[in-house]
Design a protein that fits this description.
- By secondary structure, the chain is mainly alpha-helical.
- It has three domains: 45 residues, no CATH class; 100 residues, no CATH class; 104 residues, no CATH class.
- 35% of the residues lie in helices and 0% in strands.
- The protein is built from 13 helices and no strands.
Amino acid sequence: MYSTRSTAARRNWWVVIITSSAILAGLLYSIGASAGSPSYERARWHPIHRSPQIEQASDAECLECHREILDHRPRKVSPAGVRADRVQAWYQTLDTYAGEQADFHARHLKTAYSEKVMSLKCTTCHQGSDPREEAVSPPTSRPAGFTLRKMVDPGTCLMCHGRMPHELMGLPGPWTESREMFGNNCQTCHAVIRTVRHQVNFLKADAIEKLGADSGDVCYGCHGGRQWYRIAYPYPRHAWPGMADEVPDWAKGRPNESAPRFRSATTTSAGSKDNATR
């Protein structure tokens, strides 16, 4: 059984090891920079991967080193011998998904439909990377909102890949079972309810509203149709014209505006109606 002194000593050794690793990495980056030759170590410790430079990084700067993410293609044949053109992925069941399967990043950045309704950038999801196993050391130096060992904060993905909470909406069942009752059109109800939406910098609100008027699949695609999680995203509840003063129990405690980094440039500040989200 370890003594208290032994435990403290081991903890101190870990601090020394982690600190030494950070110093060594810094030296490697400095040496690489002074040598003027590109290297993996120099690149992975480049300050563009961390705040504050990451906030101003452009897609062109990211893709200068990560271009391959847009060139990846799904397998034509699975390891088990199943041909991709003879099966249908679950996300292909919606009318809004057309053509062959595309790779993850291409689906979000370069497919025809994504370019119609989204304005995603690399930094919309990737807010930086710490080479030390995606962790900031010591723990007391972790910035607000830091997510340990994650390349992307799962909450960002949840915004478009969460479960549709049909119970909160008062629907008789999941959208797949009740959509015909509403003509497969979300705007049957949402023409007057929660009409301030999609005003964030990674979505094209006007295009979504226009396409959504023709098919509920446009809305359902991001509100349950491509569900990755068992939970729903607690969207900020922005005021809309005619909104009741009473707040439902399920909405109590929710923010009334989007996170600052997602706010649309066209959104203004005016009390509780200053910002909008999905």
